[in-house]
């Protein structure tokens, strides 16, 4: 008898736990919470983002991006949007309409402008997003990594004006 059936038949809690939306990341080097581990994690996330960026832009003359900025309720997105647009121009990226997110939801999956970006990626209208910093996506390491992987799965990349190590 399988362990799952056995545990159900013995009125024990099931062996399978509820699924998480993303796995929790453990430390890969020094103890969690130290400055060294934070810097190491930032470098790892930078390497992941750049790897995705290189993979998806190789052979593309001028990738098309949508600027994405996250601002608090009622805050003027002007400065962040200007920074993102200037970065896109410096990098030679073709820019389409900006996506301004002012709902300030912490979970990226709940942000409507980001959902529109994913839809545009799947329709191949854009190649990726350009943002000022990773905080526009999430300041939480595992959530940020999950979004990088979701972007990649949708066929897109994230280009940042300020890299992960300069938070």
Distance linking N and C termini:
53 Å
Q: How much strand content do the residues show?
A: 5-15%
* CATH topology heading: Rossmann fold
CATH level 1 name = Alpha Beta
Write the element-wise H/E pattern from the N-terminal end onward: HHEHEEHEHE
Oligomeric assembly? single chain
The main pleated sheet reads as: 5 strands, parallel
Quick summary of this structure?
This protein has helices at 3-9, 35-57, 78-90, 112-122, 141-153, and strands spanning 64-70, 94-95, 99-101, 128-131, 157-160. It has 167 residues and is α/β, with parallel strands linked by helices.
What does it look like?
- The protein contains five helices and five strands.
- With 167 residues, it is an alpha/beta fold.
- The chain has a single domain, classed as 3-Layer(aba) Sandwich (Rossmann fold).
- Strands 1, 2, 3, 4 and 5 form a five-stranded parallel beta sheet that branches.
- It is globular.
- The N terminus is likely disordered.
Using brief descriptors, characterize the structure shown.
single chain, 167 residues, alpha/beta, Rossmann fold, 5-stranded parallel beta sheet, disordered N terminus
Write the layout of secondary structure elements.
Elements: H1 3-9, H2 35-57, E1 64-70, H3 78-90, E2 94-95, E3 99-101, H4 112-122, E4 128-131, H5 141-153, E5 157-160
Parallel strand pairs: 1-2, 1-3, 1-4, 4-5
Helix pairs in contact: 2-5
